[in-house]
Every structure is written in structure tokens, then in C-alpha cells.
Design a protein that fits this description.
about 200 residues
């Protein structure tokens, strides 16, 4: 990170571009559902965590989580809307905390592992975001046990782990791992470009 602070011109521009990408991917996901609810916004969050560290991952995760919550409040996302109507505070915490923590952890893990191997660090950070996001989603769903049981399925754990997270998680993890080499290449080019200045 630059000694002049986090909010350098480069970071502000990077955040703006990645936030715009988050918005576009979130909006597209409401129009074109892939399988059920695959979260493509994990990719820019990983990229932000790699480029700008913990704070970049946290900020992008926060934006993504707030958008998910807003989509739930406005019933653009019917599943999240049902959770919100029955448990507004827990829904807010689940939507915002899961991806914000995932983004921040990806930045932190990348910073640690990249000292030894940036390529491995990219794959670990790329895998970590969907893993943490899904685990916290399941914990949030369990915290709203009665809401999930009365609106979706009496077998709450099966519903959360298999129906909600199962296929989505595997697809999100697969996409992130497939895109990781491209992300690594972008980070490598940007590192080299900023090193030339």
C-alpha cells in the first residue's frame, strides 16, 4: 500500500470501476438468473481485495451486501424480501456481514500468502470469498430458523446447505477458481505498470 494513504487516485479509480461492475452484475443477476441465484459480484470483490488489500475487499463487499439488502427490501429479490419482512435486523446483518467479511478476509489472506507466492495467493483469495460468503449465509439462515422453517422448508439445515447454498456455492467457487488466473494476470500487469512509474 502507498505511504500516502489508501485513498490514492489509483485506488479511488479502481474502486469506482469495480463498484460500477458490481452494480452492473447485480442488476444483470436480477434479469438473468443463472441456475438459481449465482453471485457473480464475487469476482470484482476478489479483484478489489487483491488490488487494494483488506480495505478494498471490505468496501466492495459492503457495497455488494448493501445492494443485496436493498434488493430484498424492495422485493427485487423475493427470497431476501421474505427474510426481511420477518427478520429485518438479522437479514441486514446476514446480507451485509457475509460478503463484507469475505472481501476483507480475501485481502488479508492475499497480503499474507502473496509474500511467498502471488499465484497461490490469488487462488486462495478467490476460493475464500465464496466459502466465507456461503458459511456466513448459512449461519444467518440458521439464526432465522423460524422464518426459514415457516416460509421455505421445515428441514432448515437441508434447505440452507443443499437447496440454497449447494449448487450456487459450487458454481460460484468454480467460476472464481476458473477466473483466478485471469485475475492474477490483471493484478500482475497493474503491479508492473504502477512499478514503472
Amino acid at each position: 500500500m502507498n505511504k500516502s494513504g489508501f485513498f490514492t487516485t489509483k485506488n479511488v479509480v479502481s474502486l469506482a470501476v469495480l463498484i460500477a461492475l458490481l452494480v452492473v452484475l447485480n442488476l444483470l443477476s436480477t434479469v438473468f438468473k443463472i441456475i438459481t441465484n449465482v453471485n457473480l459480484t464475487l469476482i470484482p470483490i476478489v479483484l478489489g481485495a487483491l488490488l487494494m488489500g483488506v480495505r478494498g475487499g471490505l468496501i466492495l463487499g459492503l457495497v455488494s451486501g448493501l445492494m443485496t439488502f436493498i434488493f430484498g427490501v424492495t422485493a427485487i429479490d423475493p427470497f431476501t424480501n421474505i427474510l426481511f419482512v420477518n427478520s429485518p435486523v438479522l437479514t441486514f446483518l446476514t446480507c451485509v456481514v457475509k460478503i463484507t467479511v469475505a472481501g476483507g478476509l480475501a485481502g488479508w489472506i492475499y497480503e499474507i500468502i502473496s509474500k511467498k507466492n502471488k499465484y497461490v495467493a490469488t487462488f486462495v483469495a478467490s476460493a475464500l470469498v465464496p466459502i466465507v460468503n456461503t458459511l456466513i449465509f448459512i449461519l444467518g439462515g440458521l439464526a432465522m430458523y423460524n422464518t426459514v422453517a415457516s416460509n421455505f422448508s421445515e428441514n432448515v439445515l437441508y434447505f440452507l446447505v443443499i437447496v440454497c447454498a449447494g449448487v450456487n456455492f459450487l458454481i460460484e467457487l468454480g467460476i472464481n477458481l476458473l477466473v483466478a488466473p485471469a485475475i492474477f494476470s490483471v493484478v500482475k500487469v497493474l503491479d508492473k505498470t504502477s512499478g514503472d512509474r
